[in-house]
Amino acid sequence: MPKVYLLKKISPQDSIWKHYPDNDLVRWVGANEEKARKNAARGSLSTNKAMSMSPWLNKEQTSCELEYNSEQDGVAGVSD
User: Fold this and answer.
1) First CA to last CA across the chain, in angstroms?
2) Can you say whether residue 77 is alpha, beta or left, with left for phi > 0 and alpha for psi between -120 and 50 degrees?
3) Residue ranges of the alpha helices (H) in the chain?
4) pLDDT value, residue 78
5) Per residue of the chain (80 residues), what is the pLDDT tens digit?
6) Cα separations (Å) of 31 from 62, 65, 71?
7) Sheet strands (E) in the chain
8) What's the rounded Cα separation, in Å, for the pair 75 and 52?
C-alpha cells in the first residue's frame, strides 16, 4: 500500500539547490523514508548529474515526513 512522503528544502537559497530551482517541496511515494528520498532523487535528476549527488538524499538539506499512509488511513474511494 502506498505511503506518501513530503520532502522540503531546509535552506532553499543554498547553492546546493541551484540545479533544482523549481520546487521547495516535493511529494514522493515510497515504502519508507529512504525509498521516498531515492525516488525523489531519481525523479528530479538534472542533466549530467548522478543520483548520489542529489540533495533530496541528504538529511541535512531536506526534511522528510510521512504525509499519508494508506495502511492506516485507507485508500480514497475504497471501503470494506
Assistant:
1) 15
2) left
3) 33-43, 70-73
4) 53
5) 679 999 999 999 998 888 777 789 999 999 999 999 999 988 877 666 666 678 899 999 999 999 998 877 665 555 54
6) 18, 13, 11
7) 3-9, 25-29, 62-69
8) 32
The pTM (predicted TM-score) of the whole model is: 0.77
Beta bridge partners of 21: none
* One-letter amino acid of 48: N
Sign of CA dihedral 53, 45, 15, 63: negative
Instruction: Locate 25 and state its grid cell.
Output: 517541496
- Please state, in angstroms and rounded to a whole number, the distance separating the CA atoms of residues 23 and 33: 19
Q: Distance from CA of residue 80 to its chain's centroid?
A: 30
